[in-house]
Amino acid sequence: MASLEDIGRRIPELLFDILEYLNPQDTFSLLLAGKDFYSVCHKQLWKDLRVYKVGVSNDEHPHESISPKILKSIDAYGVEGSGLGSTRSLRLHRESLRYQAPEFVESGLCSKLGLLLEGGELELDCVELSYFCSNMKSWQKRTKPQILLFLKLMGDYLLERGTKGFSLILTMTCDPGIIIDVPFPLQSVTDLRLEMDWTIGLFEPLNARSSRWVSGTQRVSVIRAGGEEQVLFSLPGLRNEDRGNDAVHPDDSDLTTQADQCVFNHEIITALIEMLLQTVNLKYLSIRTSKHQPDVEYKNLRLAPESTPVVLRDTIKNIPKLHTLEIIGRFFHPSYFITPPESVQRVVYDGFFSHEWFERFSRCSFPNVRDLRVSFTTINIEGLWCGPSVEQNKLVIKDVEVTGVRRCELIAVGRATVGLELAMIKRNKGLTEDSKRRLAGVFAKNVQRFDDEEVLRRGLEFMSPSPPSSVDEKCLGEKTSDSDDADWDEETRDMIRECLKSTPGVWEKVQRVRDESD
């Protein structure tokens, strides 16, 4: 078997494939190992140029910038001699473009790269820009002019370069004032990662709190102009019909003011719509909520016109080339379900969702989705624990519309629903074996953890080798008894039974419940 040294000496071009699996530190270590590795490793290090520190060791200052070193190399050896001629990916991250770390500007590297872009001396296939928004604020006079000029030159380069075979990765805070002034063509963006920041900024006026959290009843409401209180939603644990008089008129001791209850903020939705309408070449969209300390102030609640949230949902649904959609954290409202475009093959939902959200999810067909992940949390953005109420009244899901998923992961959905994992197994015949066993394991864990009557009844159905009997109760999406997939195939039922048996305490628990019912 050929050693790495033999490959470096005899077939150095094969090293490029090997180096794709190494991080920059390992590549640099290999570069120092011998002259046979130097040329290939040197080109690889410059191929993916990261203008920020990666893996800073303990003996280095955590904010030490690499920008002066890159500039010194370019000035000494030129574009080709330094390795910049091999650069295909330029990644400018938080340390490069944020005002807290201005070395990228003050070292002169920002101006240098701008001139090279303007002169057409760089051949880039990928540009990653992260957190440039801070430099676009009016009070960032120290770095704003240079960053804006650099971004303008980058925009000109993107227009000339075209979108074919090119990737523009953009990570930014979803600030309406920034979105409408992005100084480069949004049609070039292929990878968009938005962070939803609901905090009240340092220079924003502090509005009176208008969100109210009733801890004893798990409802969320807003105080509209004129003093009228409007209930927006109840958490999955309770529905409107389940509330008693105490829930409608709670004691003052039950009232606590909470921060992030942002529902349909009109300015943000409008800015998002305008931005997404221009990202016609977008392939990856991730929208996540920024994490903050629980004692910060958050923006005042404002209800947008009813049509605006629908327009945003339709805008996302109509992105023509989208391949991956991720919604992580709270996206305006726990009931606000986003249907992915038909082109999407991978979907991730991760957050706090209501019964209505899960109902919409179960009715969505996800026509071309092959990889689906849903993670439910009972801890909202501020760390407020909602577990006990959520688990009191779960939504029974007996069927789903999606049928083409191959890889599926459900995390903690048993806190809000019953039967979702079984419905996914039953309807998606093409699931990988790992996904089937993972979902069956989720079902077994739910039987182990919860004492819900419906959960235990589902467990009883799989104790005997015979197919489970039909159920008369009205459940979400229930199929008629003559449905083609009304019964489980024997192999799948055996797998679920084995998962129940192999999970500690589950089989005994189900048997005990059966004996008690007899």
TrEMBL record:
Biased composition (Basic and acidic residues): 471-482
Chain segments carrying region Disordered: 461-490
This protein's name: F-box domain-containing protein
Lineage per the UniProt record: Eukaryota, Fungi, Dikarya, Ascomycota, Pezizomycotina
